[in-house]
Amino acid sequence: MIHPNHPLAELLSRDRRYHRDAYFFVFEALRFAQENLGLGGERSSVDSTEEERHVTGQQLCEAIRQYAVQQFGLLAKAVLNEWGVRSTADFGEIVFNLIEIGQMKKTDSDRREDFENVFDFNDGLQDAFLQTTP
Fold it and tell me: Hey, where are the domains in the chain?
Protein backbone atom coordinates (compact mmCIF):
# COMPACT_ATOMS: atom_id res chain seq x y z
CA MET A 1 0.00 0.00 0.00
CA ILE A 2 1.21 3.49 -0.80
CA HIS A 3 1.32 5.89 2.13
CA PRO A 4 -1.31 8.61 1.55
CA ASN A 5 1.36 11.32 1.82
CA HIS A 6 3.60 9.76 -0.82
CA PRO A 7 3.74 11.84 -4.04
CA LEU A 8 2.63 8.81 -6.06
CA ALA A 9 -0.59 8.53 -4.02
CA GLU A 10 -1.45 12.13 -4.88
CA LEU A 11 -0.58 11.55 -8.54
CA LEU A 12 -2.81 8.48 -8.70
CA SER A 13 -5.71 10.42 -7.21
CA ARG A 14 -5.54 13.20 -9.83
CA ASP A 15 -4.46 11.19 -12.90
CA ARG A 16 -6.41 7.96 -13.16
CA ARG A 17 -5.25 6.92 -16.64
CA TYR A 18 -2.81 4.32 -15.35
CA HIS A 19 -2.99 1.74 -12.58
CA ARG A 20 -0.41 2.05 -9.81
CA ASP A 21 1.12 -1.24 -10.95
CA ALA A 22 2.06 0.43 -14.25
CA TYR A 23 4.17 2.93 -12.31
CA PHE A 24 5.82 0.20 -10.23
CA PHE A 25 6.47 -1.79 -13.40
CA VAL A 26 8.27 1.15 -15.03
CA PHE A 27 10.57 1.38 -11.99
CA GLU A 28 11.23 -2.37 -12.18
CA ALA A 29 11.89 -2.19 -15.91
CA LEU A 30 14.34 0.68 -15.38
CA ARG A 31 16.24 -1.45 -12.86
CA PHE A 32 16.11 -4.35 -15.36
CA ALA A 33 17.53 -2.06 -18.06
CA GLN A 34 20.41 -0.97 -15.88
CA GLU A 35 21.24 -4.26 -14.17
CA ASN A 36 20.40 -6.90 -16.77
CA LEU A 37 20.78 -5.09 -20.08
CA GLY A 38 23.70 -2.88 -19.03
CA LEU A 39 21.93 0.30 -20.11
CA GLY A 40 22.68 3.60 -18.45
CA GLY A 41 26.27 2.74 -17.57
CA GLU A 42 27.70 1.44 -14.35
CA ARG A 43 27.89 3.47 -11.17
CA SER A 44 31.52 2.92 -10.29
CA SER A 45 32.25 5.54 -7.66
CA VAL A 46 30.72 7.99 -5.24
CA ASP A 47 31.42 10.75 -7.78
CA SER A 48 29.24 9.13 -10.47
CA THR A 49 26.35 11.27 -11.59
CA GLU A 50 22.79 10.29 -12.30
CA GLU A 51 23.29 11.31 -15.93
CA GLU A 52 25.82 8.49 -16.26
CA ARG A 53 23.01 6.10 -15.32
CA HIS A 54 20.60 7.72 -17.78
CA VAL A 55 18.46 5.49 -19.98
CA THR A 56 16.82 7.07 -23.03
CA GLY A 57 13.11 6.81 -23.72
CA GLN A 58 13.71 4.37 -26.56
CA GLN A 59 16.01 2.23 -24.42
CA LEU A 60 13.51 2.18 -21.57
CA CYS A 61 10.71 1.13 -23.92
CA GLU A 62 12.80 -1.74 -25.24
CA ALA A 63 13.68 -2.77 -21.68
CA ILE A 64 9.99 -2.59 -20.75
CA ARG A 65 9.13 -4.78 -23.74
CA GLN A 66 11.71 -7.40 -22.82
CA TYR A 67 10.84 -7.30 -19.12
CA ALA A 68 7.09 -7.56 -19.82
CA VAL A 69 7.61 -10.60 -22.04
CA GLN A 70 9.88 -12.15 -19.40
CA GLN A 71 7.42 -11.49 -16.56
CA PHE A 72 4.07 -12.11 -18.25
CA GLY A 73 4.80 -14.15 -21.37
CA LEU A 74 1.96 -14.17 -23.90
CA LEU A 75 -0.18 -12.17 -21.45
CA ALA A 76 2.17 -9.15 -21.51
CA LYS A 77 -0.06 -7.04 -23.75
CA ALA A 78 -3.20 -7.95 -21.79
CA VAL A 79 -1.57 -7.08 -18.46
CA LEU A 80 -0.27 -3.72 -19.70
CA ASN A 81 -3.64 -2.94 -21.30
CA GLU A 82 -5.36 -3.73 -18.00
CA TRP A 83 -3.12 -1.11 -16.37
CA GLY A 84 -4.15 1.48 -19.01
CA VAL A 85 -1.01 1.13 -21.13
CA ARG A 86 -1.82 0.69 -24.81
CA SER A 87 1.21 2.14 -26.59
CA THR A 88 4.79 3.10 -25.91
CA ALA A 89 3.64 6.74 -25.67
CA ASP A 90 1.84 5.74 -22.46
CA PHE A 91 5.22 4.85 -20.96
CA GLY A 92 6.33 8.39 -21.74
CA GLU A 93 3.30 9.76 -19.93
CA ILE A 94 4.07 7.57 -16.91
CA VAL A 95 7.74 8.59 -16.88
CA PHE A 96 6.96 12.29 -17.21
CA ASN A 97 4.34 12.00 -14.45
CA LEU A 98 7.07 10.49 -12.25
CA ILE A 99 9.46 13.27 -13.22
CA GLU A 100 6.80 15.84 -12.33
CA ILE A 101 6.46 14.45 -8.78
CA GLY A 102 10.23 14.11 -8.31
CA GLN A 103 10.39 10.31 -8.47
CA MET A 104 12.48 10.23 -11.67
CA LYS A 105 14.90 12.62 -13.30
CA LYS A 106 15.42 13.70 -16.88
CA THR A 107 18.11 15.34 -18.94
CA ASP A 108 17.59 18.48 -21.01
CA SER A 109 17.28 16.36 -24.15
CA ASP A 110 14.55 14.02 -22.84
CA ARG A 111 11.10 14.51 -24.37
CA ARG A 112 7.76 12.72 -24.25
CA GLU A 113 8.10 12.18 -27.99
CA ASP A 114 11.09 9.88 -27.33
CA PHE A 115 8.56 7.24 -26.26
CA GLU A 116 6.27 7.44 -29.29
CA ASN A 117 6.04 4.46 -31.65
CA VAL A 118 9.10 2.67 -30.27
CA PHE A 119 7.42 -0.66 -30.88
CA ASP A 120 3.98 -1.82 -31.94
CA PHE A 121 1.97 -3.33 -29.09
CA ASN A 122 0.24 -5.75 -31.45
CA ASP A 123 3.57 -7.30 -32.45
CA GLY A 124 6.29 -6.23 -30.04
CA LEU A 125 4.95 -8.00 -26.99
CA GLN A 126 4.40 -11.28 -28.81
CA ASP A 127 7.31 -11.49 -31.27
CA ALA A 128 9.49 -13.34 -28.79
CA PHE A 129 7.05 -16.25 -29.02
CA LEU A 130 6.76 -16.50 -32.79
CA GLN A 131 8.22 -19.63 -34.32
CA THR A 132 10.87 -19.02 -36.95
CA THR A 133 11.44 -21.49 -39.73
CA PRO A 134 15.03 -22.42 -40.57
Answer: 17-39+49-129
* pTM to 2 decimal places: 0.85
Length of the chain equals 134
Residue 13 makes CB contacts below 8 A (sequence gap 6+) with none
Q: What angle do CA 13, 17, 19 make, to 5 degrees?
A: 75
What does the alpha-carbon distance between residue 81 and residue 125 come to, in Å, rounded to a whole number?
11
Q: Which residues contact 128 (CB under 8 A, 6 or more apart)?
A: 69
- Residues 32-61 have pLDDT tens digits of 999 988 887 654 444 444 445 789 999 999
Phi then psi dihedrals of residue 40, to 5 deg: 85, 0
pLDDT in tens, 69-96: 999 999 999 999 999 999 999 999 999 9
